[in-house]
Amino acid sequence: MALSKCCISGFNWDGKPTGKEIELAGFNTYVTGSNKEAAVLYIHDIFGWTFTNARLLADHYANEAGVTVYIPDFFSGEVVTPETLDSPEKQAAFDFGAFLGRHGKDKRGPEIFAAAKALKQNIGYKKLGAIGFCYGGWGTLQLAGKGNNLIDAAIIAHPGMLEESEIDAISVPIQIIAPENDFTYSQELKDYSNKVIPTLGVEYDYQYFPGLEHGFATRGDPNNLVQKKGLERAKNAAVHWLQQHLGV
């Protein structure tokens, strides 16, 4: 199965993550922050829980929103790095269909719910948010579904693998970070979201980023002025949303 270049390309950010690695509900997990009442479950993209950019972004959320952020490994130790996909030859050789077969919704969905339950019920966070990028978007929406009662707010950024039924079921405040050019979060899905979500009785914040493409919020180039502004705006919007809905 062919894989769109913008899903697997990106810019590695400078910096050293400041969190630590722990075990959460049996998952290797990166954790950053010290708030004992408000936490965020970060559901990673194709580059997984070890991706430096993801950890740096989690550090920003922890420091600026005042929450504790957890990034569990939802790929069972499989590591895909930008370096393993940094040429057309490597990208062509990557079997995305097989990858999704190993990490499909039926397998990873229960694990995502287990991690959320561990944070909310076992550790006992009073407030829990979820944020998902690309691959992590569908898992975040499932957590936000009616009757789950696990999270208090959700954010999805250039989300992948969404179904209309998952949008229909949203029951918590939701923020969407939507680049103009996105093969996974198509214009049809954008239009559907903007038609349906305002009817669901939840707070809704749609952040549109003209000229930017799928992956920008976690893999944009900070040396490119347009991408840098997009990165900063997306990060700031997420921080504000977390502050607003997690009570910190």
UniProtKB/TrEMBL annotation:
Pfam families, alphabetized: DLH (PF01738)
Top-rank taxon: Eukaryota
Annotated TM spans: none
Gene Ontology MF annotations: hydrolase activity
InterPro entries xrefs: AB_hydrolase_fold, Dienelactn_hydro
Start and end residues of each Dienelactone hydrolase domain: 29-245
Protein name in UniProt: Dienelactone hydrolase domain-containing protein
Naturally occurring in which organism (per UniProt): Exophiala aquamarina CBS 119918
